[in-house]
Amino acid sequence: ALTYATLSDAGDSAKDWTVGASYDFKVVKVFAGYERSSNVGTSTAGTLGRAAVAAGTATGLNAIPAANGVRTETNSEWTVGVRVPVTTAGTVSASYAKNRNDIDNTDVSAWLVGYDHALSKRTTVYAAYMRLANDSASSIEPPARFNNTNTFTSATGENYSGFTVGVRHAF
User: Fold this and answer.
1) 0.85 exceeded by pTM
2) Alpha-carbon distance 1 to 23, whole Å?
3) Which end of the chain is more exposed for a tag (fewer CB within 10 A), N or C?
């Protein structure tokens, strides 16, 4: 699969493209993906622009002051993984992902291992363990699936690990 998206607002632009593939060898299913997004800003107004920086209300990319009226951010992420059927009803999965942001030279990586067991055609129980590692300049929090209390406060360089169990039912 390949996707491309672009957004423009008052002199700012954002571009994003993703590519992903998977193949089922029957004894193992492998998958991989890559995403690259870039943001360029030159405006002094608009929701993506520098006015929010000046007003102190900006977040994320908008909080980065533009040098010579232009700011550029590039973010890239890749992921690889496998799903291995171990019984007629059970599947073990593992994946690894790495994200790099060039505006502040930060890296974050995460790996996950899990098990899904089908109780019926529509009901599955699952368990998973995840480890997220921020570099010394990064402060990414764990995904909601591992942070359902929303009590994490992200600190620069902090690492996280979590375990989740649950039941999925398709209606």
Assistant:
1) no
2) 12
3) C
